[in-house]
């Protein structure tokens, strides 16, 4: 169902049959000035084999969601409310020892900086083997070797490069190695956090095709995080647009990118430049009406820096008003 208002209003709708169900999740960071809400009452579901993209500007809370789903939030972060259920299991209440059994084995993450994710003093193959043996200590040497060859073939890295060190890999090969590491234990869910950052456009295209092929081949659930709408459009069928810690619009790729309803989505699409427009993204005319103007005050968007009360325009199609400004980025003092 198409939704252009915050999905956080879908309270109490946890789908127990989904691979992943997040309901009313709120995450805050303790700062010197007080509690900062980085993620504000978000909800979404993901089925096995489906792909869901989170798109939005830097600082809107995308990576915080991914880190929470991996149980890797920093010490000053806190889940204030809400639920995260993976295969009907509550993730919020897990201890670190319980997380270690899930992290990597059932939920894996592709980090955005491959050069930082690999140990420079160990061969790449040994690092991937370590991930497998950690979660499958009884695996035989024959099965381990076959598994390694299968992973390298899957991500299109020559098997003879298995014993090379990270510095002997190109940027694209490093990223493929990180993808292989994420797939090592055949997880049900992969979180890709801007996996093509710092790669040139040709390698980026190769990696995106690789991720999409692997995801479809293994029927793995995929959460793809990016600030680039073109990247999300090429990988994901369903999209969540985030602004200042909230999901402001959701829908299929076609719905969100060809008929955006929220002012921020329109502004995001207006920044899209393409020579071929292979993703069929409709760039809206930002001067069509007052609620489509790039000025955040007129567009009804709360400022992420100085949130202040403002007039909220009505949607021309439904007559509904946009959600009022919240304290998503304001410091909440105790």
Care to give the gist of this entry?
Helices cover 31% and strands 22% of the residues. It has a 6-stranded mixed sheet, sandwiched between helices. A 5-stranded antiparallel sheet has the order 5-4-1-2-11.
Overall mean pLDDT stands at 80
Total helices: the number is 11
Task: Give me the CATH superfamily.
Answer: P-loop containing nucleotide triphosphate hydrolases
Q: What kind of oligomer do you see?
A: single chain
| CATH third-level topology | Rossmann fold
| Rg of Cα set | 21 Å
CATH architecture type: 3-Layer(aba) Sandwich
How many E-type strands? 11
Provide the β-strand percentage band: 15-25%
Q: Major sheet: order of its strands?
A: 6-7-8-3-9-10
Q: Tell me the number of structural domains.
A: 1
Ends apart, CA distance between termini: 38 Å
Q: What would CATH call the class?
A: Alpha Beta
Class based on secondary structure composition and strand pairing? alpha/beta
Walk me through the structure.
- The chain has 334 residues and is of the alpha/beta class.
- The chain has a single domain, classed as 3-Layer(aba) Sandwich (Rossmann fold), CATH 3.40.50.300.
- It has 11 helices and 11 strands.
- It has a 6-stranded mixed sheet, sandwiched between helices.
- Helix 6 runs parallel beside helix 7.
- The C terminus is likely disordered.
